[in-house]
Amino acid sequence: MNWDRIEGNWKVFKGKIKEQWGKLTDDELDVIAGKRDQLIGRLQKAYGITKDEAERQVSEWEMRQREDMSSAEVR
What we know:
This protein has 75 residues and is mainly α. It has helices at residues 3-8, 10-20, 26-32, 36-47, 51-74.
C-alpha cells in the first residue's frame, strides 16, 4: 500500500482505520493524518502493544486494503 496515497485520501481511509482500531479518537486520527509511523505509535499507546505487533497489524490492514481495491477495480 502506498502511504502517499493513504495520506492524500486520508478522509476516506480515516473511517477504515476507525473501524479497525476503534480506540483511536478523532483527534488522534487528525494527528496521524495518513502517516504510517504516527499510526504505529498511536496504536502502541492506545492498545499497549509492542512496536512489532503494531507494525504487524498495520501490515495486515494494508494487505486487506490492497485486496479490497483490487476487487473493486475488477468489478
